[in-house]
Design goal:
The longest helix has 9 residues. Strands 5, 6, 7, 8, 9, 10, 11, 12 and 13 form a 9-stranded mixed sheet that branches. Strands 2-1-3-4 form a 4-stranded antiparallel sheet. By secondary structure, the protein is α+β, with helices and mostly antiparallel strands. It is built from 7 helices and 13 strands. It has 3 domains: about 50 residues, Structural Genomics Hypothetical 15.5 Kd Protein In mrcA-pckA Intergenic Region, Chain A; about 90 residues, Alpha-Beta Plaits; about 80 residues, Alpha-Beta Plaits (2-Layer Sandwich), CATH 3.30.70. Bound molecules: uracil. The site of uracil has 8 residues, from helix 6.
Length: about 240
């Protein structure tokens, strides 16, 4: 990692302040002053700032219950960032493991550990996601038996070359279903329902892997060690 990034991740300094400290000769790497912020360093190096040894903050792993009309980005755009208004430090270091659309609510996993999040979202992982879906029009009695079969068989999304992976559709009532998918293509759930001539009017993610949403809308909590480890592959 770059030296200036290392300093940001181990102190409260901003990137600009870290650069200033480096250029002013306050940062020593393995007994030598390093004046160039882009130098690559490693956790095994001994890095001091004004004589004090620095070590990286532990990685953070959390869930957020995303409200509607927020975006899974660190900065506000057309809608506010889902981090806005949360009592969380250093949000610029965090990223989400699997985005939701602005109008989708529910479970978002957030971390500063790129390896961990990549392991959740990489397509080969086939990580299960459960969505509660509201439909604009009721499923007809004649469709009710057919739809789960169509989702289990795979659907041909517009612009894709392969069918969707087998998905589990559970009808809760004629306008509400639970859908479990193991991939995460762009607008996947809405496009799957478009394939069967249904329009999604409400979309809420309840579960990713073994981790279920258990906090109120707009809240966040740290994941437990068991939850964090549940996404790691067996050694
Ligand atoms: N599928 C969608 O269409 N939107 C989401 O936000 C998540 C999955």
């Amino acid at each position: 990692m770059r030296l200036d990034k290392y300093i940001c991740k181990s102190t409260k300094l901003s990137r600009a302040q870290a650069v200033e400290c480096i250029r002013d000769g306050h940062v020593i790497v393995n007994d030598k002053a390093v004046l160039i912020e882009s130098v690559q360093v490693h956790e095994n190096n001994t890095i001091t700032l004004n004589g004090k040894r620095l070590s990286l903050r532990a990685h953070r792993y959390l869930m957020i219950h995303k409200p509607a009309n927020t975006i899974c980005s660190n900065v506000d755009e057309a809608y506010p960032s889902l981090f806005s208004g949360l009592n969380l430090d250093h949000t610029q270091e965090l990223h989400v493991a699997g985005r939701l659309d602005a109008d989708t609510t529910g479970l978002v996993l957030v971390t500063d550990d790129g390896r961990w999040s990549f392991d959740i979202i990489r397509p080969q992982k086939h990580c299960k996601k459960v969505y509660r879906v509201g439909l604009s029009r009721a499923i007809e009695p004649g469709q009710a038996a057919l739809l789960p079969e169509q989702f289990a068989h795979g659907l041909q999304l517009q612009g894709e070359t392969e069918l969707t992976r087998p998905a589990v559709l559970q009808i809760i009532n004629p306008q509400e279903v639970l859908l479990t998918i193991t991939e995460g293509k762009y607008h996947q759930v809405k496009r799957m329902f478009a394939c069967v001539s249904k329009r999604v009017v409400k979309l809420h993610r309840e579960k990713i892997g073994d981790v279920s949403l258990d906090i109120n809308v707009g809240e966040w909590r740290y994941l437990t060690a068991t939850e964090v480890d549940s996404f790691r592959d067996e050694p």
